[in-house]
C-alpha cells in the first residue's frame, strides 16, 4: 500500500534530525526539540490529560503529583476533549428549557443530532456522507450489517476472519453462522500467521482468498489488529475478495482516527467502528457504520428495521408503510442519543483542526521514535546469543506502512511486575498476559516527550522489578 507518510524510514529521519541538532535521539533535549517543531503539538491542549496523582495505582513517593501522566492507552480509551462539557451542558439546557420541544429546538435538535457528526466521520474514514451513519455500539452494528451482507448458501457459506480476531468479532461470526443453521467448525475460516510469525502476510491472505474464495460468503478483517497493531492492506484484501465474488467488510475499531482510510475508493462493502479509542468519544461512545454506495439501492436485502430507517420526509406520518432510506441510513433503528453525539462532536472539532494525512505523518515519526528507543535499549539478541538482560521483540510490523500508532512489545520474561511498576510511576498502558505491553502514542495528544518519558520509566520499572 503506497503510503505518502512513509516515504522514508522514520529511524533515518529521526537520526538525521538529531545530528542536525547536535544531539542523540535518546537525549531528552531531542524529544523536546521534536515537540517544539511539531505543528500538531498544540492539539494536546484540547484534551484533559490525567495528572499523575489522580491515577489510582500511582505511588505518590515515585512521581511529581501534578505532572501529566504518561498516557499510552488511546488504543483502549481516548482522552476527554475539553469541548465535551460545553456540548453536554447545551444538551442538558435544551432538555431543561424545552422538554420535548428539544427534539427540534436548541443548539442541536435531538431528532437530527447525529447529522452533526456525519460529515467529519465520513472524512476520517474516506467515505461519502451518505455512506456513513453514527449509531449503536460496534458489535451491534457488525450484527446489523451481517444480517444483510452474510447470505450463506450451500456452496458459499464461509466467513473468513483473522485467527486472533477480537473476541466480540469472533463470537459475532460464530453466532451469525449458527443463526443460519451452519456450523462454525466448517463455516468459520481463520487466517493464521505462518509458524513462528506473529502477523499475517498480505500475500498469504490474498492466496487464502484465492484458494477458498468460492466457498467464502464474507471476508471480515480488522483494519488494525488489536493485539499486534498490524495495519492490514484493506485495498488488497477488498480486491482479492471481490475477485472471488465475496462480500468484504472491516472492523475499524483500531484503525479509525489512527490510519488513513479510503473506504469508498477501495470499494469496501461495509464497515463499522467504535469511537471511544482514537476518536475520543468516551466509554461506550456512539459507533459508526459504512455501507458503500454500490449497495444504496439494495433496500430489499434482508435486514432488521426500525422507524429511524424510514425516510425522514414521511417518518412521522406513522402509517406503518415502510419507506426505507437508501444505503446505510436504512440501517438506523432508533432515534439518536444526543448525550453520545456530543462527546464525539467535541472530538471531531479537534480532528477538524488537522487532516488525517498530517496526523499520520506525525504518527509515523512518533511511533518510529518509540521503536528506535526500544531497539536501542532492549535489543533482541542475535540467535544463540545470551545476554542475561531483558529484551523486547516488537511484534508489530517494522514497516510503518503496516502499522498504526500502536507498538506491541513482547518481553523476554513475564511482564506482570514490570507493569505494576510502570503503573506506580504514572504510566497508563495496556498489558496482555503473559508478556506483551501495547503502547499507543496517539498523535492528537501524545508528544515525543511522552515517548521519551515512557522509555525512561520502563527502564526504572525493569530495575525496580529486578529483571
Ligand atoms: C477490534 C474490536 N472489535 C470489537 C470490539 C468490541 O466493541 P464494542 O464493545 O464497542 O461492541 C472491540 C473493543 O475494544 C475491538 O477492539
What would your notes on this structure say?
- The protein has 467 residues and is an alpha/beta fold.
- It folds into 2 domains: 4-68 and 355-464, Aspartate Aminotransferase, domain 1 (Alpha-Beta Complex); 86-351, Type I PLP-dependent aspartate aminotransferase-like (Major domain) (Aspartate Aminotransferase, domain 2, 3-Layer(aba) Sandwich), CATH 3.40.640.10.
- 35% of the residues lie in helices and 12% in strands.
- A 7-stranded mixed sheet has the order 4-10-9-8-7-5-6, sandwiched between helices.
- It is globular, with a radius of gyration of 23 Å.
- Pyridoxal-5'-phosphate (PLP) binds next to helix 5 and helix 6.
Write the layout of secondary structure elements.
Elements: H1 10-21, H2 28-37, E1 47-48, E2 70-71, E3 80-81, H3 84-98, H4 118-125, E4 132-134, H5 138-149, E5 158-162, H6 167-179, H7 184-187, E6 188-191, H8 202-212, E7 216-222, H9 234-243, E8 247-251, H10 263-266, E9 270-273, E10 288-291, H11 312-315, H12 338-351, H13 356-377, E11 392-394, E12 407-411, H14 416-424, E13 427-428, E14 430-432, E15 436-439, H15 448-464
Parallel strand pairs: 2-13, 5-6, 5-7, 7-8, 8-9
Antiparallel strand pairs: 1-3, 4-10, 9-10, 11-12, 12-15, 14-15
Helix pairs in contact: 1-13, 2-15, 3-12, 5-6, 8-9, 13-15, 14-15
Bound molecules: pyridoxal-5'-phosphate.
The site of pyridoxal-5'-phosphate (PLP) has 12 residues, from helix 5 and helix 6.
Amino acid at each position: 500500500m503506497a503510503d505518502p507518510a512513509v516515504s522514508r524510514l522514520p529511524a533515518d529521519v529521526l537520526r538525521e534530525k538529531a545530528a542536525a541538532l547536535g544531539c542523540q535521539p535518546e537525549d531528552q533535549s531531542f524529544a523536546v526539540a521534536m515537540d517544539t517543531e511539531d505543528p500538531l503539538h498544540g492539539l494536546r491542549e484540547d484534551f484533559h490529560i490525567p495528572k499523575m496523582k489522580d491515577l489510582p495505582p500511582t505511588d505518590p513517593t515515585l512521581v511529581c503529583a501534578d505532572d501529566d501522566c504518561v498516557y499510552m492507552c488511546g488504543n483502549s480509551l481516548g482522552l476527554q476533549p475539553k469541548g465535551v462539557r460545553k456540548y453536554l451542558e447545551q444538551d442538558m439546557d435544551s432538555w431543561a428549557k424545552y422538554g420535548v420541544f428539544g427534539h427540534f429546538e436548541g443548539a442541536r435538535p435531538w431528532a437530527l443530532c447525529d447529522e452533526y457528526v456525519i460529515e467529519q466521520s465520513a472524512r476520517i474514514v474516506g467515505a461519502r456522507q451518505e455512506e456513513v451513519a453514527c449509531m449503536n455500539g460496534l458489535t451491534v452494528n457488525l450484527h446489523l450489517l451481517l444480517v444483510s451482507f452474510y447470505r450463506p448458501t450451500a456452496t458459499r457459506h464461509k466467513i473468513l476472519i483473522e485467527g486472533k480476531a477480537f473476541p466480540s468479532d469472533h463470537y459475532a461470526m460464530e453466532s451469525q453462522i449458527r443463526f443460519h443453521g451452519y456450523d462454525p467448525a466448517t463455516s468459520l475460516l481463520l487466517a493464521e500467521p505462518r509458524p513462528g510469525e506473529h502477523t499475517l502476510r498480505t500475500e498469504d491472505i490474498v492466496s487464502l482468498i484465492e484458494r477458498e474464495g468460492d466457498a467464502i460468503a464474507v471476508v471480515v478483517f480488522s483494519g488494525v489488529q488489536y493485539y499486534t497493531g498490524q495495519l492490514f492492506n484493506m485495498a488488497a484484501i477488498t480486491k482479492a475478495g471481490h475477485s472471488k465474488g465475496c462480500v468484504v467488510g472491516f472492523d475499524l475499531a483500531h484503525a479509525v482516527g489512527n490510519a488513513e482510510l479510503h473506504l469508498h475508493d477501495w470499494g469496501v462493502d461495509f464497515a463499522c467502528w467504535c469511537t471511544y479509542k482514537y476518536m475520543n468519544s468516551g466509554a461506550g461512545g456512539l459507533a459508526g457504520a459504512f455501507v458503500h454506495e454500490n449497495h444504496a439501492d439494495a433496500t430489499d436485502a434482508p435486514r432488521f428495521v426500525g422507524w429511524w430507517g424510514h425516510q425522514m420526509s414521511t417518518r412521522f406520518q406513522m402509517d406503518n408503510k415502510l419507506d426505507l432510506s437508501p444505503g446505510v441510513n436504512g440501517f438506523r433503528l432508533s432515534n439518536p442519543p444526543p448525550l453520545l453525539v456530543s462527546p464525539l462532536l467535541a472530538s471531531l472539532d479537534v480532528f477538524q483542526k488537522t487532516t488525517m494525512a498530517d496526523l499520520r505523518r506525525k504518527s509515523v515519526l512518533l511511533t518510529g521514535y518509540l521503536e528506535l528507543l526500544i531497539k536501542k535499549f532492549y535489543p533482541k539478541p542475535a540467535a544463540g546469543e545470551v545476554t542475561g538482560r531483558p529484551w523486547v521483540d516488537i511484534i508489530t510490523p517494522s514497516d510503518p506502512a503496516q502499522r498504526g500508532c500502536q507498538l506491541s512489545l513482547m518481553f523476554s520474561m513475564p511482564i506482570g511486575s514490570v507493569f505494576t511498576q510502570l503503573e506506580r510511576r504514572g504510566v497508563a498502558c495496556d498489558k496482555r498476559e503473559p508478556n506483551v505491553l501495547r503502547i499507543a502514542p496517539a498523535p492528537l495528544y501524545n508528544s515525543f516527550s511522552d515517548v521519551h518519558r515512557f522509555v525512561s520509566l520502563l527502564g526504572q520499572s525493569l530495575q525496580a522489578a529486578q529483571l
